[in-house]
Amino acid sequence: MNYSSYFTNRSTEAITQDLIGRMLTFNDGTQKLGGYIVEAEAYMGKEDRAAHSYGGRRSQANEGLYRAGGTIYIYAQRQYFFFDVATQEENEPQGVLIRAIEPTLGLDTMKKNRNGKDGVLLTNGPAKMMQAFGIHSRKWDLHPLANSPFAIDLDDKSKRIPKKIVASKRIGINQLDPEWSNKPLRYYVAGNPYVSNMKKRNYDKKSGWT
């Protein structure tokens, strides 16, 4: 798959929205675990007050954002890990955070990795998704997506089509600057139960798919 072209040929917002409905998998060495991306957030680089690269900050911790589009950026908060992919050309530190998937592959293993958590709790958040994959380190940080156990299916024929993709402000971004805290840079499948904080009353009968 030509990840480098996919993650550099348009705006980060457009890439993030296009990822919705695509299959994300992780090969744990014995099987593929994964599901359809139902929620993702765009981070817009040096001008984005919520981005790890805001103001041109650069360190070993966020180096993944500065690599060429299609490079994995994994970061940690406390004991939790988060999966991002760099977008744009090298040294233009933008990226996409994958926030949630609707799981379809390796459900028993993912449930075990989540200590028995099942249903929407399995993968309805970025840290939960990484736990479900059995990932507890930054081992794959800085690796090109193409040379890693992760894969995103870029074949449009296998992409699931949402009835509606909602654009909203990102989660957990509390900034003094309302411009960036309120920008609609989070995209999700309307009515999908695996989306972070989706209320039961808003669940769609077909989980938001056509």
The number of domains is: 1
Rg, rounded, reads 16 Å
Distance between the termini: 26 Å
CATH class: Alpha Beta
DSSP strand count: 8
**Quaternary structure annotation:** single chain
Structural class: alpha+beta
Q: Label the overall shape.
A: globular
**CATH-wise, what's the superfamily?**
Methylpurine-DNA glycosylase (MPG)
- Indicate the percent of residues in helices: 10-25%
The average pLDDT is: 97
Indicate the low-confidence ranges by residue numbers. none
Enzyme class: hydrolase
GO molecular function, one term: alkylbase DNA N-glycosylase activity
Protein name: Putative 3-methyladenine DNA glycosylase
Keywords: DNA damage, DNA repair, Hydrolase
How would you describe the overall organization of this protein?
This protein has 210 residues and is of the alpha+beta class. It has a single domain, classed as 3-methyladenine DNA Glycosylase, Chain A (Roll). Helix content is 16%, strand content 26%. The chain has 6 helices and 8 strands, in the order ααββαβββααββαβ. The chain has helices at 3-6, 12-19, 63-66, 107-113, 126-132, 178-181, and strands at 23-27, 32-43, 72-77, 80-87, 94-105, 150-152, 165-168, 186-189. Strands 1, 2, 3, 4, 5, 6, 7 and 8 form an 8-stranded antiparallel beta sheet that branches. A hairpin with a 2-residue loop joins strand 3 and strand 4 (80-87). The two termini are 26 Å apart.
